């Protein structure tokens, strides 16, 4: 039975996983970005998706083998495009910090990923606007976008307050470069939603094969993430060749900005375990996303906004816990509190609208 309010809870759990995945990477020592990114990515895009799909669905290989070639192409293609957003997301966080980088990138992702699919399919005008539940869902989406904008303003106020580098807790950032990367990442990351939408025939075949409807989206993730893996693998391979960092996989020291080896060898076991943890945590965002989407009813596309809002909520809380907002000024902190309240409220509003549309309330 469909229960959108439970779906919201699943999206919150997925948001927590996504907002937390980068934290283990902070503990990686003497590895270049491209080394730990592709190492964790193997778990994010290959190992975890196929493992959990095999464990939680019936006849995975039969379902995927019989899926239309057109479905395979669009799922993988949109995953490939999403990969450009996914790999630059890490750079956005690096340049802007967890709070601001996540807010800008995911704000754009939420807008494009939520609204484009129903507009293209015609559902926006034929179903969403004319119904009470649909209007509430749309209102919740707009509220979420407003909340994202407020948190973005809070992040900008924080950066201005810390710009002189003397405020407690301030760190070296690159705001201009970070904003360019975050905008690009946000737009391209919306393609993931398009890939999930293109996988509807696979979901239907999965349920027909006897899989619990709660797990119907897992095989689609396998295909979409293959495309994302291709993008990330090519970029990381280029960086590894350019930076001569391949030796780091077996313990060679990283190369610093001057081309000299850093002191000491990397702690291999620690780095591999932390990268595996971070990569698996990243995958869990979509593991729970597909569960949440299965509970949202006729307006499943609204799951994308709930997911993005949840990520920003928990990423902001991580930013606070990691003292990114220490010394940011009263205006930034006030905007942050308002933005968080708006985002939390938006997820409830969207869940309520879906519950009305599905007859759950």
Quick summary of this structure?
The protein has helices at residues 4-20, 22-25, 33-56, 60-65, 69-121, 123-128, 132-161, 175-189, 191-198, 200-208, 218-243, 268-293, 303-321, 330-358. By secondary structure, it is mainly α.
Number of strands: 0
Radius of gyration: 20 Å
* Straight-line N-to-C gap: 13 Å
Give the mean pLDDT: 86
How many helices in DSSP terms? 14
Low-confidence stretches: 166-172
Domains, number = 1
Largest sheet: none
Order of helices and strands: HHHHHHHHHHHHHH
Shape: globular
Helix-strand category: mainly alpha
Strand content: under 5%
Q: What is the share of helical residues?
A: over 70%
Structural topology:
Layout: H1 4-20, H2 22-25, H3 33-56, H4 60-65, H5 69-121, H6 123-128, H7 132-161, H8 175-189, H9 191-198, H10 200-208, H11 218-243, H12 268-293, H13 303-321, H14 330-358
Helix pairs in contact: 1-12, 1-13, 1-14, 3-11, 3-12, 5-7, 5-8, 5-9, 5-11, 5-13, 7-13, 7-14, 13-14
Task: Give short descriptive properties of this protein.
globular, mainly alpha, about 75% helix, sugar transport, about 350 residues
Account of the protein in words:
The chain is mainly alpha-helical and 361 residues long. The chain has one domain (4-255, 264-358). It is 75% helix and 0% strand. It has 14 helices and no strands. α5 crosses α8 and α5 crosses α13 (303-321). The radius of gyration is 20 Å and the shape is globular. Mean pLDDT is 86; it is low at 166-172.
């Amino acid at each position: 039975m469909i229960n959108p309010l439970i779906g919201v809870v699943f999206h919150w759990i997925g948001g927590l996983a996504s907002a937390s995945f980068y934290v283990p990477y902070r503990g990686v020592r003497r590895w270049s970005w491209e080394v730990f990114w592709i190492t964790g990515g193997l778990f994010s895009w290959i190992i975890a998706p196929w493992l959990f799909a095999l464990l939680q669905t019936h006849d995975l290989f039969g379902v995927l083998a019989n899926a239309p070639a057109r479905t395979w192409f669009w799922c993988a293609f949109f995953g490939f495009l999403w990969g450009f957003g996914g790999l630059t997301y890490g750079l956005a966080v690096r340049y802007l910090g967890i709070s601001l980088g996540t807010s800008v990138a995911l704000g754009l992702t939420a807008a494009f990923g939520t609204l484009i699919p129903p507009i293209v399919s015609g559902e926006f005008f034929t179903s969403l606007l004319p119904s009470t539940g649909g209007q509430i869902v749309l209102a919740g989406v707009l509220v979420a976008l407003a909340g994202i904008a407020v948190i973005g303003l809070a992040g900008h106020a924080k950066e201005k307050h810390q710009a002189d580098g003397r405020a407690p807790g301030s760190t070296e950032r690159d705001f201009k470069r970070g904003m360019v990367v975050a905008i690009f990442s946000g737009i391209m990351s919306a393609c993931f939603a398009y890939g999930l939408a293109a996988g509807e025939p696979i979901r239907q075949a999965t349920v027909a094969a006897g899989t619990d409807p709660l797990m119907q989206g897992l095989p689609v993730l396998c295909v979409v993430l293959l495309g994302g893996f291709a993008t990330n693998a090519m970029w990381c391979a280029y960086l590894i060749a350019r930076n001569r960092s391949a030796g780091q996989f077996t313990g060679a020291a990283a190369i610093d900005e001057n081309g000299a080896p850093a002191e000491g060898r990397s702690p291999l076991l620690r780095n591999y375990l932390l990268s595996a943890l971070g990569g698996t945590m990243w995958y869990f965002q979509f593991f729970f996303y597909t569960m949440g989407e299965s509970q949202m009813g006729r307006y499943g596309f609204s799951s994308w906004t709930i997911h993005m809002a949840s990520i920003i909520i928990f990423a902001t809380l991580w930013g606070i816990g990691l003292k990114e907002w220490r010394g940011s000024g009263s205006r930034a902190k006030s905007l942050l509190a308002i933005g968080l309240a708006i985002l939390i409220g938006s997820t409830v509003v969207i869940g309520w609208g879906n519950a009305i549309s599905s007859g759950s309330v």
